Amino acid sequence: MEAKANAKWIRMSPYKLRRVAKMVRGKGVDEALNLLHFNNTAASLPIEKAVRSAVANMLNNDETSKVSTEQLYIKELKIDGAFIMKRFRAASMGRATRIRKRSSHISIVIAGKEN
Q: pTM value?
Protein backbone atom coordinates (compact mmCIF):
# COMPACT_ATOMS: atom_id res chain seq x y z
CA MET A 1 0.00 0.00 0.00
CA GLU A 2 2.28 2.72 -1.34
CA ALA A 3 1.99 5.71 -3.62
CA LYS A 4 4.66 7.70 -5.40
CA ALA A 5 4.99 11.23 -6.74
CA ASN A 6 7.76 13.00 -8.61
CA ALA A 7 8.37 16.71 -9.05
CA LYS A 8 10.96 17.35 -11.72
CA TRP A 9 12.95 20.36 -12.87
CA ILE A 10 12.44 22.41 -9.70
CA ARG A 11 14.49 25.61 -10.13
CA MET A 12 16.00 25.50 -6.65
CA SER A 13 19.26 24.17 -5.33
CA PRO A 14 19.16 20.62 -3.93
CA TYR A 15 21.02 21.86 -0.84
CA LYS A 16 18.14 24.15 0.08
CA LEU A 17 15.52 21.47 -0.57
CA ARG A 18 17.39 18.80 1.42
CA ARG A 19 17.44 21.05 4.47
CA VAL A 20 13.63 21.10 4.52
CA ALA A 21 13.26 17.45 3.46
CA LYS A 22 15.29 16.32 6.45
CA MET A 23 12.71 17.97 8.69
CA VAL A 24 9.71 15.95 7.41
CA ARG A 25 11.24 12.61 6.38
CA GLY A 26 9.60 9.73 8.25
CA LYS A 27 6.79 11.80 9.76
CA GLY A 28 3.05 11.32 9.33
CA VAL A 29 1.48 13.03 6.34
CA ASP A 30 -0.74 15.37 8.41
CA GLU A 31 2.16 16.49 10.59
CA ALA A 32 4.46 16.91 7.58
CA LEU A 33 1.92 19.03 5.70
CA ASN A 34 1.41 21.18 8.77
CA LEU A 35 5.17 21.71 9.14
CA LEU A 36 5.63 22.49 5.46
CA HIS A 37 2.68 24.85 5.20
CA PHE A 38 3.76 27.03 8.12
CA ASN A 39 7.50 26.87 7.40
CA ASN A 40 8.88 30.21 6.26
CA THR A 41 11.29 28.95 3.59
CA ALA A 42 10.72 28.93 -0.15
CA ALA A 43 11.92 25.32 -0.34
CA SER A 44 8.88 24.07 1.57
CA LEU A 45 6.43 24.94 -1.23
CA PRO A 46 7.57 22.40 -3.89
CA ILE A 47 7.96 19.68 -1.24
CA GLU A 48 4.45 20.37 0.07
CA LYS A 49 3.06 20.14 -3.47
CA ALA A 50 4.83 16.79 -3.98
CA VAL A 51 3.44 15.42 -0.69
CA ARG A 52 -0.08 16.51 -1.64
CA SER A 53 0.34 14.88 -5.05
CA ALA A 54 1.44 11.59 -3.48
CA VAL A 55 -1.56 11.65 -1.11
CA ALA A 56 -3.89 12.28 -4.05
CA ASN A 57 -2.28 9.38 -5.93
CA MET A 58 -2.88 7.14 -2.91
CA LEU A 59 -6.52 8.19 -2.49
CA ASN A 60 -7.32 7.86 -6.22
CA ASN A 61 -5.92 4.34 -6.38
CA ASP A 62 -8.76 1.79 -6.51
CA GLU A 63 -7.43 -0.66 -3.96
CA THR A 64 -6.42 1.95 -1.37
CA SER A 65 -9.24 4.48 -1.76
CA LYS A 66 -10.58 3.85 1.75
CA VAL A 67 -7.37 4.83 3.55
CA SER A 68 -7.51 7.89 5.81
CA THR A 69 -4.69 10.42 5.84
CA GLU A 70 -4.01 9.78 9.54
CA GLN A 71 -2.67 6.32 8.62
CA LEU A 72 -0.19 7.61 6.01
CA TYR A 73 3.46 8.48 6.58
CA ILE A 74 6.37 9.58 4.41
CA LYS A 75 8.34 6.43 3.74
CA GLU A 76 10.94 7.90 1.41
CA LEU A 77 11.77 11.46 0.38
CA LYS A 78 14.68 11.90 -1.99
CA ILE A 79 16.11 15.10 -3.47
CA ASP A 80 18.35 14.66 -6.52
CA GLY A 81 20.25 17.20 -8.52
CA ALA A 82 19.07 17.96 -12.06
CA PHE A 83 20.62 20.04 -14.83
CA ILE A 84 22.79 23.04 -14.04
CA MET A 85 22.43 26.17 -16.13
CA LYS A 86 25.82 27.72 -16.64
CA ARG A 87 25.99 31.49 -16.85
CA PHE A 88 28.86 33.96 -16.79
CA ARG A 89 29.32 37.26 -15.00
CA ALA A 90 31.93 39.91 -15.60
CA ALA A 91 34.77 39.90 -13.09
CA SER A 92 37.70 42.18 -12.41
CA MET A 93 40.56 42.66 -14.86
CA GLY A 94 38.48 41.61 -17.88
CA ARG A 95 37.79 38.09 -16.66
CA ALA A 96 34.53 36.15 -16.45
CA THR A 97 33.38 34.03 -13.52
CA ARG A 98 30.97 31.12 -13.81
CA ILE A 99 27.57 31.16 -12.14
CA ARG A 100 25.90 27.77 -11.76
CA LYS A 101 22.10 27.88 -11.41
CA ARG A 102 21.11 24.54 -9.96
CA SER A 103 17.84 22.65 -10.19
CA SER A 104 16.41 19.53 -8.53
CA HIS A 105 14.13 16.52 -8.73
CA ILE A 106 11.91 15.47 -5.80
CA SER A 107 10.86 11.82 -5.39
CA ILE A 108 8.46 10.89 -2.62
CA VAL A 109 6.91 7.59 -1.50
CA ILE A 110 4.14 7.47 1.08
CA ALA A 111 2.81 4.32 2.71
CA GLY A 112 0.11 3.29 5.13
CA LYS A 113 0.93 2.22 8.66
CA GLU A 114 0.39 -1.48 9.23
CA ASN A 115 -1.78 -2.16 12.28
A: 0.89
